[in-house]
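Many introductory courses stop at the sequence. We go one step further.
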Amino acid sequence: MVSFHSESLDRLFEAILMLEDKEQCYAFFEDLCTIKELQDLSQRMDVAYLLDKGMNYQQISKEVNVSTATISRVNKCLAYGSGGYKRALERLNAEGTEED
């Protein structure tokens, strides 16, 4: 993947890492993003989650209401990306296991 590191992104990520809970995340991202941007981001995360669970493109497209092109892009990132989705999914799955 092409590097896109910058001081601006560093500042954004530092701000995100300083948020303490889900409510603070809601408040921050509601101010930062449009509703559509948040929906798009959450849909991509849903797609990654469902791909990780073994769902096929058609099932995911119906469930999440996204195009197969979006699913393909997320799948490409899962397979060949920088590992961000995989790391996040591993942590979400581990957290889900601990709560059981």
